[in-house]
Amino acid sequence: MNSRNRFLYTLQGVVILVLLTPVAMGQDGYIKDIEKARKAKDKELKSQRHSPLQKEDRKRFSGLQYFDVDPGWKKEVQCELIKGGDTLDIVTSSGKDKKFFEYAWLIVDHLGASDTLTAYMRIWPEGIECPYDPYLFVPFTDLTTGETTYGGGRYMDIGVPEQSGTITLDFNLCYNPYCAYGGGFSCPIPPKKNFLDMSVEAGEKSYDDH
Prior knowledge:
This protein is α+β, with helices and mostly antiparallel strands. It has 3 helices and 8 strands, in the order αααββββββββ. The longest helix is centred in the first third of the chain and has 21 residues, at 27-47.
């Protein structure tokens, strides 16, 4: 695992910790868990020499900007596994392609509006082994993209469901690709069909204010 992947793995570990924390503590406990994970991520970004932040940015970095944690954006969504999903190349910010296949459709309802996201499984190049536990990649854009959130869209990572049914999709955990913090990265650009016609005021905001 290279140094950049080690850093990404650490950040994913923070997110996984939140997902596995029991909600029995209620709404206040849930909000505190998310806030704790955000502080841990800020610490990683500032202190790690493998951080995606540029060296000069790390010196003055005081924390990422987020929407307030909103339990209303922790959604129970219908997940429909795709039989015979297409394999496709998703173009990245560097112009290179990364290969994925369509694994599931996620039906998102919010304030009477309904839209669908496609969740993808990464197909790693021959000879490269996935450094993480299996997960689905959910890149998306919405009505906040390019306004209060990063113009290149945001990402979510979720577990791999074995069958269709209801799953939890927590937009409070959505995050920016590394390209939001500086150059030198190859970040998948969300496919046009993964546009949500709603304002997802949850998760990470744009980094432009720093």
